[in-house]
Amino acid sequence: MLRGMRKASSNWLGKIIMATVMGFLIISFGIWGIADIFRGFGQSTLAKVGHTEISANEFRQLYTEKLQQIGRQFGRPLTMDQARAFGFDRQVLQQAIAEAALDEEARKLGLGQSNDETMRMIFNDPNFNGVGGAFDPARFQAVIRQFGFTEQRYVADQRRVSLRRQIAGTVSAGLEPPNVLIEALSRFQNEQRSIEYVKLDAVQAGTIDPPSPETLAGYFDDHKTQFRAPEYRKISFVVITPEDIGKWSEVSDEEARKIFEQRRDKLGTPERRQVSQIVFPNVEEALAARNRIASGLSFDDLAKERGLNPTDVDLGMVAKSAIIDPAIADAAFTLPSGEVSQPAQGKFGAALVKIGKIEPGAEPSYESVASSLKKEIATGRARASVATLHDKMEDERGGGASVIEAAQKLGLAAVTIDAVDRSGRLPNGQLAANIPPGLDVVSQAFGSDVGVDNDPIQFNGGYVWYDVLGITPSRERSLDEVKDQVEAKWRDDQIASRLRAKATEMVQKLDQGGNFADEAAASGLKVETANGFRRDASLPGLPASVVETAFRTPKGGVGQTAGGANEWIVFRVTDVSVPPVDLASEDIKKLKETLRRGLTDEQLAQYVTKLETEIGTTINQNAFAQATGANN
What pLDDT, in 10s, does the model give residues 214-254? Predict the structure, then answer.
């Protein structure tokens, strides 16, 4: 419709007509009261937290970005309906409200951050590094523009993020999970079980005679929704990303070698050493200690004399760049293994350094990284081209051109898919192969309509424009169209029913004292075992439901669960063991850190909820439904 209005207004007669129409609209607003639109909520306001407003456009952009991220993680696009079913819409809204509440609290507390500190954070952000590994102003501008930021707005946003972290860090400071909780969770996670089991398959189900026409028709009537044809949409789209338009083959070896030399240290694997150090107030004391070591005193005994723990002395297996003090780093990386250095005057005193194990570094050849460096250089150059093509594409679209028309004019390749369903599948059931992985164009198309001007999707550092060209509504199929599918599903249901009955009978006999091996032999089944698995185990040839059910069954108990297609599993728990808890182990330290993060998140969530209540939060449900596609 909007494109039609633009085309209509492209000549003098159309402009007169459109001016008249708009005049009537303006008059009607005056009659009905345009002030009603802005009472309570602005037309573009989705939520309000204290004095902070979250606009519908701001939320829509955030929501779209989150769905694209999730789609890339799943390896397939996530539709608006699926996102709402998982509750992602509410999660993103809650995140936006929480951030606004923390911003309000920062203002209330008078928190601030200097421009110098904010710029330091931005300069150190690796996302803005160029091909040379340093901050690249051009890349910075391209990246923030891709996400809809001006430089001023991005700096302000980063300042707000830093202030939120200050508040979060203060609220969660000092949180430590109790040992009782750590031990209980460790036992839960590390409990192990063993089972013996048999698999019942289609052979145990016996012969399944073909259904009569009446039986098949009745089954089809009861399960029509399973065989319904989905809604299909015809879509066209064009993709413009740095990777797509960057021509790495045109990058010369000279350019790539220059970058290789600049980044040689970062491209390879640096030498790493086991480094220990003892720091002394001055060189004299350090030299005296070094002489005692030369006379036979061990480095470890010297550390004990000075009241130092192993953690105070051991720097770990580190690269030279990981040692902050240059003097200590130089001393550590000039010694052979097992040697103790002469006193090295560092920033914090004179130190003796001892070297343990040495892991040699590996330096890559130019040939092994040439192609990736050329692609990186080409992609960096292409970012400017992406911005230029974006503006040209928007100009063409603004002039009323369709995606295909605009792509042809700019020499770009547009993709057209004649029919695709919400899951990204073609009528033959195959996934559409010409949609780039992670591109959420299908769900976006199902949230749009024919003739609608759609905002471009941000994707892989570039943009995707799309049109919905046609819609084929969902419909009920006739039995003749899907007879083979219906008969196959009926047969599978019959097999599953028989296997479930046989498994239940077998479990009842075992519960009454039957021997597992004897019952398996009587049914012609082979007994197999799975030993020492935990709750998070993936057992070869067994579904996750076996593990889940086994951990709900006591030792000696018998259980059953569905297996794969036309398969049922009966098992007996033969052993249950819980390893002892070692609070000093690395696994427990990792678990403790995980619990600490969980407690931090919980405490911060409670704090933010209290803030939202005190500050006052209101949500424009209509705008929220529109932004998340709930009213489509």
Answer: 999 999 999 999 999 999 999 999 998 877 766 555 666 77
Collect all residues with Cβ–Cβ distance below 8 Å to 622 and sequence separation of at least 6: 631
Residue 332 is encoded by which pair of tokens?
């550590």
Q: What is the pLDDT of residues 422-461, one digit of tens each?
A: 989 999 889 998 898 888 899 889 988 999 989 899 888 7
3-state secondary structure of 198: strand
Q: What average pLDDT does this structure show over 486-515?
A: 93
Per-residue pLDDT band for 566 (boundaries 50, 70, 90) equals confident
Helix (H, G, I), strand (E, B) or coil at 631: coil
Rounded distance, CA 117 to CA 161, Å? 13
On whether the pTM is more than 0.70, the answer is: no
CA gap 397, 392 in Å, rounded: 9
Q: Where are the alpha helices (DSSP H) in 191-282?
A: 202-205, 213-222, 242-245, 253-262, 264-267
The amino acid present at 445, given as its one-letter code, is A
CA-nearest of 535, 394, 378, 557 to 463 is 394
Calpha distance 49→13 (Å, rounded):
47
Q: What is the pLDDT of residue 147?
A: 67
pLDDT exceeds cutoff 80 at 69: no
Q: Is 210 helix (H, G, I), strand (E, B) or coil?
A: coil
Q: Closest Cα partner for 170 from 111, 121, 124?
A: 111
Radius of gyration (C-alpha) of the chain in whole angstroms? 33
Report angle CA 152, 153, 154 to the nearest 5 degrees: 95
Task: Decide if 416 contacts 235 (C-beta within 8 A).
Answer: yes
Structure tokens at 453: 């001007």
Long-range contacts, stretch 316-325, CB < 8 angstroms, 24+ apart: 316/274, 316/275, 317/272, 317/273, 317/274, 317/357, 317/359, 318/272, 318/273, 318/275, 319/270, 319/271, 319/272, 320/270, 320/271, 321/265, 321/270, 323/275
Distance CA 238, CA 466 (A): 7
CA-to-CA separations, 117 to 127, 159, 334, 588, in angstroms, rounded: 18, 9, 36, 36
